[in-house]
Amino acid sequence: MSEILWRRALELFAGGVNSPVRAAVKPYPFYVEKGEGAFLYTVDGQRLVDYVLGYGPLILGHANPYVKEKIKEQIDKGWLYGTPSKKEIELAEKIRSHIPSAEKVRFVNSGTEATMLAIRLARGYTKREKILKFDGNYHGAHDYALVSAGSAASEYNVLISGGIPTSILNTVVLCKYNDLECVEKTLKTEQIAGVIVEPVMGNMGVILPDKDFLNGLRELTKAYNSLLIFDEVITGFRLGLSGAQGYFNVIPDLTTLGKIIGGGLPIGAVAGKKEIIDNLTPSGKVFNAGTFNANPLSMTAGVATIEVLETTNAYDIANKAAKEISDELNALFSRKNLEFTINRIQSMFQFFIGVKKVTNADDARLANRELYIKIHEKLLKLGVFIPPSQFETIFTSSAHTDEVINITIEAFRKVVNEI
């Protein structure tokens, strides 16, 4: 059935898909009938343990009963008003109560919209034009963010022929992740409006910040009057209720959020200091508007998801699953005498074969991607779905119970023993 649907899709969509990483599953993507808990059920009758989880939003697994019930209640009340609703206040209050930098919030519809707005806001607030970003950091699919980006964008030359003017390069300065020396040199010599960073890289695989990196960024941006923007679209409410900024105790000026705060529905947000956020229209001159901003369904799903995270041991289950699988992979790869490293933090991890350490995008690019894809393909046949790209993150959820972990470990053992 998936093959039939794929042939139809090729006639309708560029490359047969609506986001490029979905075409990375070969020879064609599988099509999903439903998701429930830790599992995806395909139209071909296969059950898959899911470690993609919508690329991060589904920290409670698929179709969490509480979130689903709240969405149903909201559907009965309508799903688009074009005027404010109580739920947007409730979700903003939840975010403000947990995310240290979030004094005020502006809701948008995706992580891409959030980072695009944060960059515009930094420029409007500082009256400067240039942005500093890091090689391999992915901040969505808009022009400024796609300069040396991670995720699927790393597979494409997006400049010129990809529709992005080379003049964009004049407004974006690049440094390597974890390279404070480059950051300081740039801030000394350039008028930088803001430094945008993934506090944990999640789109070149998982890459962790060095001990002093995030604190160093905070000190340098303060010293040179630039804004520090944490892109927490992935890490927000993933590393804990306070996100990466709470986990590492480093407070940025602006934070972009998405994924988990929408409970699996489309969402994005920019949060930050009052005096910065108040520069947005209608109180300021930095323009932002959107028909679907603060959509009631997304607001409802987000509030419900955070309520579950606040009141259950969801984080403990998800983090335990990631640790146990990572530990097993460490033992399996070691017995095979493979050169490898596994980067993990809380409920997100990735393994890299052929390299001893991965601290920046260049390190990640040296990993054996062909072998990673072989492992992905063999696991898929055994009913385990990990991302079809070395440059994505393996996520776990509160639905990844001991039973699910055991299924996964058994599949990994079979695959690694065949390598």
UniProtKB/TrEMBL annotation:
Enzyme Commission no: 5.4.3.8
Protein name, per record: Glutamate-1-semialdehyde 2,1-aminomutase
Gene Ontology biological-process entries: protoporphyrinogen IX biosynthetic process
GO function terms (MF aspect): glutamate-1-semialdehyde 2,1-aminomutase activity; pyridoxal phosphate binding; transaminase activity
Obligatory cofactor(s): pyridoxal 5'-phosphate
Species assigned in the record: Sulfurisphaera javensis
Compartment(s) of residence: Cytoplasm
Family: Belongs to the class-III pyridoxal-phosphate-dependent aminotransferase family. HemL subfamily.
Coiled coil: none
Pathway(s) this gene product operates in, as recorded in its UniProt entry: Porphyrin-containing compound metabolism; protoporphyrin-IX biosynthesis; 5-aminolevulinate from L-glutamyl-tRNA(Glu): step 2/2
Pfam families hit by this protein: Aminotran_3 (PF00202)
Residues bearing PTM N6-(pyridoxal phosphate)lysine: K259
Keywords, comma-separated and alphabetical: Cytoplasm, Isomerase, Porphyrin biosynthesis, Pyridoxal phosphate
Major subcellular site: cytoplasm
Catalytic activity: (S)-4-amino-5-oxopentanoate = 5-aminolevulinate
One GO term describing the cellular component: cytoplasm
PANTHER family, A to Z: GLUTAMATE-1-SEMIALDEHYDE 2,1-AMINOMUTASE (PTHR43713), GLUTAMATE-1-SEMIALDEHYDE 2,1-AMINOMUTASE 1, CHLOROPLASTIC-RELATED (PTHR43713:SF3)
Keyword Ribosomal protein: no
